[in-house]
Design a protein that fits this description.
heterodimer, A: mainly alpha, ABC transporter involved in vitamin B12 uptake, BtuC, two-stranded antiparallel sheet, two-stranded antiparallel ribbon, 70% helix, 2% strand, B: alpha/beta, Rossmann fold, 6-stranded mixed beta sheet, 18 helices, 32% helix, 25% strand
């Protein structure tokens, strides 16, 4: 049992930090990277215009709307929880933002603040239900999914709410130094979350809570507070995504981002985060987000029937996760169960 | 003790199970070495031995869970061969394991017939018949439980009886009970014991694994002692004194090796921790004790005596508990977990795997997680500080690990335990509550843990050392109290801490 599973790297015997990983990428992340490279080669050969700058920037922008909430959902899943409320939360946030800026005369800044605070509030509420009353997070966020989606449509009669003209909104929906603004936000937030997960007490406590909540609690980690914070975080990220989406579309839409939660969860899980909790990485999530965004883009370019696209995506997602599980099992071969 | 009972210890009938020349090798361990074992119909045989002695392996071989490397198991005249659990069940072996395997949301009858529900028609279940037959089995064992009751609503002792009844329903020839009373409070055990006697009286051979000598004396005729993979002896329980049995279990070498160097503890000062009137029904009914800086206080008591609950209540993890706690003579107004931690109290749980380690995280991180602040600079964890802290602890505790980032689950039990203790050294705790710190740990690691605990106390910490393995208390403790029926029952200080004294005190349970 005094196993030396992880000593296969010769010369790596000097323990290299507690909180940094031994290697930059794990086996599954390398596999995912390879899969992305293969996709790029295949699509650039078969899909006309795939490598065009405009198309690549488009992929980046689409990746942002999956990726921004996926950062928070990664932490949620690492903590052994789940958040399925993302799609309707994004839609509702876009509605609040648009209404705040137009009908409610809050000004752009006011509408922005209101939307973000609202996102924190509903997320924290779901987290509180989980932490205080042990309501399974699947159920708490399912309730949120239904309620926020309903509110978004009820408040707008399913009609778009136009945003007032504003250069700030234009820049949110447009480009920053030639890169779509949402993509810039995503990349910045990626580094913030990567740091949060690796280098802060909060991030490490999230891992500990997901790995063994009882042990974490006995070690004095405030698991309730952490659970509330986790969902407040996904709430605010969904709100931010909704704002960016509204800025791009020029309006708030109660029916926007339908099904986004599935892409988000798929990206996180493809990235190697274990649904059982305790294990996962933001680098993996980043790669997972790129992976599914590239596939989605490629299928469109190839002119695949939209209904069939869903089938193909479903198969690819399951296959990717299956590959992950198999790799993960090999990596933990000597783990005492 | 049980003079009115039919003479125990004698073969009551023909042999039911015979094992000859059983050998079993695991990687690096010879778990069983040429074991001979015979049990007769109507006999209750206790199986006794320390953890890792080979009891569980013997049970696994008898019940077909594993096949021996050499030797043979014969049940009722038929060789078991490599037929596995299914064959063993056909031959009439039934095993009840320590962990309950009942479905709490189902009724007693449904549980008794789990997956063997009597059928009616194509897919229907014959509920009246199931209920009737369940009532029959329960009646035989004199278990006063309604077959229609939900298992989850029953007290633990009755759930244990249901578990046994489920095995008995299959009319086994050989019934193996693996510590059936370990989770029960002392008062609850006698119903289980009398059920076991009744089963044996009906002609079933019963193997009874337990660490509770008093129970063994009540229920078993003879006891087979296993040590280091060998059957050391089988003795009549009436003829053997407790120290004799203990000597058979322990051998001599280990205990002599680690005699305690005496040390004086100043108990005139203000105690570091003082507990008054700790109540947590149904297990604890008013526990009082003081703990002084520089001492190791042992708490002895059998499983189910409320030892773990006591520690959890002191550490603030049992909000229902009633208690007055003083640290350094000052009363703690609200002894919550956070407050107690801040006052320098740390607890390591009995269930190392379930509540101690975070399996996938590295060894280093498992230790610093009690106080990330100690390895942080300006709110961020510093890998350099974390590594230095981890290294120091690994060295101080001699944790054997390939590297700090090795997932702790890959370490041996002893090294995991040392790391879990290390967690509280990192948090600079002054009061350590260690719940079964040597459970499931090999002999060498045990010695290291004893030494570590002594050292910590020597440096001024106050340690509570809880153990169900009473034989280890004299090896580490400056003072021992025994817990019984929810209260502190006896107290022993240095020269009087002997195994005999402690055993006598914990086992003097009126049942």
């Amino acid at each position: 049992m005094s196993s030396t599973t992880l000593t296969h790297k010769p010369g790596g015997s000097s323990a290299k930090g507690t909180t940094t990983s031994r290697q930059l990428l794990h086996l599954n992340e390398l596999g995912l990277l390879a899969a992305i490279v293969v996709l790029y080669i295949a699509l650039s050969a078969s899909a006309g215009g795939f490598l065009d700058t405009q198309n690549q920037l488009g992929i980046l922008r689409d990746a942002a709307s999956v990726g921004i909430p996926a950062l928070g959902v990664t932490l949620v899943i690492i903590a052994g929880e789940i958040d399925i409320s993302i799609g309707p939360a994004v839609a509702f946030a876009s509605v609040i933002f648009a209404k705040g800026a137009s009908e409610w005369h809050l000004g752009i800044a006011g509408a922005l603040a209101l939307t973000l605070v609202a996102g924190i509030a509903w997320g924290a509420f779901a987290g509180w239900l989980r932490a205080r009353f042990a309501v399974p997070s699947f159920i708490a966020t399912l309730g949120l999914w239904s309620a926020l989606g309903g509110l978004a449509l009820y408040a707008t009669d399913a009609l778009p709410v136009p945003l007032p003209a504003s250069s700030f909104i234009d820049s949110l929906g447009g480009k920053f130094l030639g890169v779509p603004t949402p993509a810039v936000v995503f990349i910045v937030l990626f580094f913030v979350f990567w740091y949060l997960a690796r280098r802060t007490a909060y991030g490490r406590s999230v891992y500990a809570t997901g790995g063994n909540a009882a042990a974490a609690q006995l070690a004095g980690i405030p698991i309730r507070r952490i659970r509330v914070t986790l969902f407040a975080t996904t709430g605010v990220l969904a709100a931010l995504t909704g704002i960016l989406l509204a800025a791009r579309l020029g309006s708030g839409n109660g029916g926007a981002a339908a099904g986004l939660e599935f892409d988000v969860i798929a990206a996180v899980v493809i990235g190697g985060t274990a649904l059982a909790g305790g294990r996962g990485s933001l680098i993996g999530t980043m790669l997972g987000v790129i992976f599914i965004s590239v596939i989605a883009n490629g299928l469109v370019l190839l002119g695949v029937n939209p209904f069939l696209q869903n089938v193909v995506r479903g198969v690819i997602i399951v296959a990717a996760v299956l590959a992950n599980v198999i790799i993960g099992r090999r990596g933990n071969a000597t783990r005492v169960s | 003790m049980t003079s009115a009972e039919p003479a125990p210890g004698r073969p009551a009938g023909p042999p039911v199970a015979t094992a000859t020349g059983l050998c079993k090798q695991y990687p690096g361990v010879r778990a069983l070495d040429s074991v001979e074992f015979t049990i007769h119909s109507g006999e209750v045989r206790a199986l006794l031995g320390r953890n890792g002695a080979g009891k569980s392996t013997l049970i696994r071989l008898l019940s077909g869970v594993e096949t021996p490397d050499a030797g043979e198991v014969v049940i009722g005249g038929e060789p078991l061969g490599d037929g596995g659990v299914r064959r063993a069940a056909e031959l009439g072996v039934a095993t009840v394991y320590q962990e309950l395997s009942l479905v709490p949301e189902m009724t007693v009858a449904e549980n008794l017939f789990l997956n063997e529900w009597p059928r009616r028609g194509a897919a229907g279940i014959d509920y009246p018949r199931m209920r009737r037959e369940a009532a029959e089995v329960l009646g035989e064992l004199e278990v006063p439980v309604d077959p229609g009751a939900l298992v989850g609503t029953l007290p633990l002792a009755e759930q244990q009886l249901i578990e046994i009844a489920r095995a008995v329903r299959r009319r086994p020839r050989l019934l193996i009970l693996d510590e059936p009373t370990s989770a029960l409070a002392a008062e609850e055990t006698h119903t289980v014991l009398s059920a076991v006697r009744r089963i044996a009286d009906s002609g079933v051979a019963v193997i009874y694994v337990s660490h509770r000598l008093d129970e063994i004396r009540q229920v078993a005729g003879s006891v087979t002692v296993v040590r280091d993979g060998q059957v050391i002896d089988t003795v009549d329980v009436r003829d053997a004194t407790t120290p004799q049995i203990v000597a058979l279990m322990l051998g001599t070498t280990v205990q002599e090796a680690a005699a305690l160097e005496p040390r004086t503890v100043d108990r005139t000062r203000t105690p570091l921790l003082s507990v008054r009137g700790l109540k947590l029904p149904p297990k604890l009914h008013g526990v009082d004790f003081d703990l002084y800086a520089g001492e190791v206080l042992g708490i002895g008591g059998l499983l189910g005596s409320g030892r773990s609950e006591l520690l959890r209540a002191i550490a603030g993890f049992e909000p229902r508990a009633e208690r007055v706690i003083e640290v350094d003579g000052a009363r703690v107004a609200r002894p919550t977990a956070a407050a107690m931690k801040k006052l320098g109290l740390g607890m390591t749980p009995e269930d190392r795997k379930g509540a101690g380690i975070v399996p996938m995280l590295g060894v280093g991180e498992n230790m610093v997680m009690s106080w990330f602040g100690g390895v942080s600079r300006r709110g961020s964890i510093s890998p350099a500080l974390a590594e230095r802290a981890g290294r120091d602890l690994v060295e101080r505790l001699s944790v054997k690990t390939p590297r700090l980032s090795t997932p702790i689950v890959n370490l041996s039990g002893g090294n995991q335990q040392k790391a879990v203790i290390g967690r509280w050294l990192h948090a600079r705790s002054r009061i350590l509550l260690l719940d079964e710190p040597t459970r499931g740990v090999d002999v060498e690691a045990k010695q290291q843990i004893y030494r570590l605990v002594r050292e910590l106390a020597g440096n001024g910490a106050a340690v509570v050392f809880v153990s169900g393995e009473l034989e280890e208390l004299p090896l580490v403790c400056d003072r021992v109290v025994t817990l019984q029926q929810g209260r502190i029952h006896r107290e022993f200080t240095a020269p009087d801490i002997t195994l005999d004294n402690i055993m006598a005190a914990t086992m003097a349970v009126e049942v």
